Amino acid sequence: MAGNRTSISAGIIVGKLLAEDPDVSSMVTTVFPVAVAKAKLPYVGYRCRETEVTAVKAPGAPDTVLMEVPCFAAQYRESVRLAEAVRAALDFREAETEGIRMRKCMFAGREEIYEDEAYVQVLLFRVDIR
C-alpha cells in the first residue's frame, strides 16, 4: 500500500510489536488479531475496540484507537506475568512500520476474567496513529 496508513491499520503495528518483543514471544504460543478458533495456552490477542477520529483534520492530527489486548493463560500468576510483559512491550512506545506511524501508545486500564478454561488479563491501550 502506497502512502501513509490510517488508524484502520493500528492492529498491524500493535501485532508486530507484540510478536517481535522477546519477552512476550518467549511466553506465548501465538499472537493473533481479533479472534482465533483454536490456540494452545498461553497466548495473546489484539483488536481495535473503538476509534476516536480527530474532528478537524490538521496536518499531523492523529486518530486515537482503543486497543484491547487479552492475555490468556492456564494459571492466574502466568496470566499476570504475561500481562506485565505485554504492558512493557507497548506502554509509552512509538513506532513506524509499513506506512503506519504510532505516535504514542499508553496503557489505559485492565480487567480480569475467566473464560474458556483460561485466566484472562484484558489490557487496554490508547494508541495515537498518524
How would you describe what is shown here?
There is one protein chain. The chain has 3 helices and 6 strands, in the order ααβββαβββ. By secondary structure, the protein is α+β, with helices and mostly antiparallel strands. Strands 1-2-3-6-5-4 form a 6-stranded mixed sheet. The model has no long low-confidence stretch (mean pLDDT 90).
**Coarse morphology:** elongated
Structural category is alpha+beta
User: What's the rounded overall pLDDT mean?
Assistant: 90
Biggest sheet record: 6 strands, mixed
Roughly what fraction of the amino acids lie in strands?
35-45%
Q: What percentage of residues falls in helices of 4 or more residues?
A: 10-25%
Oligomer: single chain
- The unreliable regions are none
Looking across the biggest beta sheet, what order are the strands in?
A: 1-2-3-6-5-4
Radius of gyration: 15 Å
Number of helices: 3
Please trace the helix and strand order, writing H or E for each element: HHEEEHEEE
The rounded distance between the terminal residues' Cα atoms is: 15 Å
What is the number of beta strands? 6
Gist?
The protein is an alpha+beta fold and 130 residues long. The protein has 3 helices and 6 strands. It has helices spanning 10-20, 22-27, 76-90, and strands spanning 31-33, 43-52, 63-73, 93-97, 100-115, 118-129.
What is this structure's SSE topology?
Blueprint (H helix, E strand, L loop, with lengths): L9 H11 L1 H6 L3 E3 L9 E10 L10 E11 L2 H15 L2 E5 L2 E16 L2 E12 L1
Parallel strand pairs: 1-2
Antiparallel strand pairs: 2-3, 3-6, 4-5, 5-6
What are its keywords?
6-stranded mixed sheet, 130 residues, 3 helices, elongated, alpha+beta
